[in-house]
Backbone:
């Protein structure tokens, strides 16, 4: 095999490796978002808190908080986006065509990765604020932290938000990878 043929084969391997990284980032985002939704949907608990000697029944669910509803909605949209890209990437890998065939498609992937990264990060931030309030209580009122009584609920929400942030990391990494793809096209 001549020198040009070896370089062509090496370039083809590098391109396939890059495309494999793109597909694995999409798969990671899909898995993290789907697991975050599953854990959040299981976050329900009932308990009794003692405030000034009076028993106060507590019932908590993710659907009671608009911030947690936003997390579930953002994760749902991110799952659909990641699933679409994952299916498209796997199809193109199997057919041998490039995952990002043109500069304009690379720009679209970059823009949408950024958009969904910001969406999932804002949802995670909103959820973290409510979770922190549940954990620390309200300092200027006699309301205690609810996580002492509702630890199962708080632990599930915290795990879900951790997975949301992991999903953000996958999306941000995919966005950075699209910058690399744009620089090589």
Residues:
């Amino acid at each position: 095999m001549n020198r040009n043929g070896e370089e062509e084969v090496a370039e083809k391997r590098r391109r396939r490796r890059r495309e494999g990284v793109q597909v694995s980032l999409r798969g990671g985002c899909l898995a993290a978002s789907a697991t975050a939704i599953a854990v959040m949907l299981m976050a329900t608990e009932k308990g009794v808190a003692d405030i000034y000697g009076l028993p106060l029944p507590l019932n908590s669910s993710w659907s009671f908080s608009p911030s947690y509803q936003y997390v579930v909605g953002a994760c749902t949209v991110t799952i659909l986006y990641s699933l679409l890209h994952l299916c498209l990437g796997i199809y193109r890998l199997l057919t041998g065509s490039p995952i990002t065939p043109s500069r304009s498609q690379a720009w679209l992937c970059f823009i949408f990765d950024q958009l969904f990264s910001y969406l999932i990060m804002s949802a995670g931030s909103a959820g973290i604020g409510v979770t922190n309030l549940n954990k620390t209580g309200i300092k200027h009122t006699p309301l205690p932290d609810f996580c002492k009584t509702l630890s199962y609920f708080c632990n599930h929400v915290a795990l879900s938000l951790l997975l949301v942030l992991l999903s953000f990391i996958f999306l941000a990494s995919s966005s950075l990878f699209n910058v690399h793809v744009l620089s090589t096209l």
Observations:
- The longest strand covers residues 44-51.
- Strands lie at 44-51, 54-61.
- The two ends are 27 Å apart (CA to CA).
